[in-house]
Design brief:
Blueprint: H1 3-19, H2 24-42, E1 46-50, E2 58-63, E3 71-75, H3 85-99, E4 102-106, H4 118-132, E5 140-145, H5 147-162, E6 169-173, H6 185-188, H7 198-208, E7 230-235, H8 241-253, E8 258-263, H9 276-293
Helix pairs in contact: 2-3, 4-5
């Protein structure tokens, strides 16, 4: 691990110690600033267009250098409590520029003002909107990080249940798929995760719903048979590592195609940072996009 990465990890640990007691309004403001910084850093490589819908808030992010013909419906993280359009636009811009594919970034309604199933309903309406706008399902990939990574699978389960055509692929970065926090990594990685605590996750979960075992809340507990190919990227030091490992194993056991990439020593949503490991992660996303759009698994 390079010196800069080690320093960054130390800084994240310092911030992590005070984040549990940070009020929601301040945490949301911090997330917005993070998103604005990402937009400022990468926005020169993309154009923006508002999505014309009265049902949800979203933006199209169109990279100048198009590499993949299709679209990503991006669902942001933030524990279903944090992350407005400014944050969604920021990570969405990074995603669009690094992959060369148009991104539709959704700013779904947040808890506790809008509890479950508000976020899922917004995601469903956004996906249906893309279909009605002329994007065939085989040209749509769902992508999300953290809570948004879990929401990717909740949406896929919802689409399957409703008989809607499924997207071509699913990409999850550090997904939160088990709101019961039952995985072994919640204990094993408790002392080495520099970016997240179980206390904070439980607070987010309780703000979102009291139905933690519902498969639309914790998709790990759902019937995953028939879901599209998946790429799951996660840091080896995350307390939520088990969420990804268990999801991958269950996808395989259900006959689905899934690739799990564990980045040694990395933390929650490490792809958003300007480090070598993030570059490698985006390279793997590009390989996955190329494969699924060409009909491979």
């Amino acid at each position: 691990m390079k010196f800069y990465t080690k320093l960054l990890k130390t800084e994240l640990s310092a911030v992590n110690k005070i984040s549990d007691s940070c009020p929601i309004d301040k945490s949301r403001a911090i997330m917005d600033k993070i998103g604005a910084t990402m937009t400022l850093r990468h926005g020169f490589g993309a154009d923006y267009k508002n999505v014309d819908s009265a049902e949800f808030k979203a933006k199209y992010i169109i990279p100048h250098d198009i590499k993949h013909k299709g679209i990503i419906l991006y669902l942001h993280g933030g524990g279903y409590v944090l992350g407005g359009m400014d944050y969604a636009k920021g990570f969405g811009t990074l995603l669009a520029v690094q992959t060369g594919i148009t991104v539709c970034c959704l700013a779904y309604r947040l808890a506790p003002e809008h509890k479950f199933p508000a976020a899922l309903s917004d995601a469903y309406n956004a996906y249906r909107f893309l279909l009605k706008s002329g994007y065939p399902p085989e040209k749509i990939v769902l992508c999300g990080e953290s809570a948004g990574g879990g929401l990717v699978y909740s949406l896929a389960l919802c689409l399957k249940a409703k008989g809607c055509p499924l997207p071509r692929g699913l990409i999850a970065v550090s997904p939160w798929t088990d709101l019961t926090s039952s995985g072994s990594s919640y204990t094993e990685n408790r002392g080495i995760d520099p970016s997240m605590t179980e206390k904070r996750l439980r607070s987010y979960a309780e703000s979102y719903t009291d139905r933690f075992e519902d498969h639309y809340v914790s998709p790990l507990f759902g019937d995953l048979k028939g879901l599209p190919p998946s790429l799951i990227l996660v840091g080896g030091h995350e307390i939520m590592l088990s969420d990804s490992v268990a999801l991958h194993k269950k996808l395989i056991s259900c006959g689905c195609s899934s690739k799990l990439d564990i980045a040694p020593g990395m933390w929650h949503v490490y792809l958003m940072y300007n480090i070598a490991e993030a570059k490698i992660g985006f390279e793997k996303i590009n390989v996955f996009l190329e494969a699924v759009f060409n009909g491979q698994k």
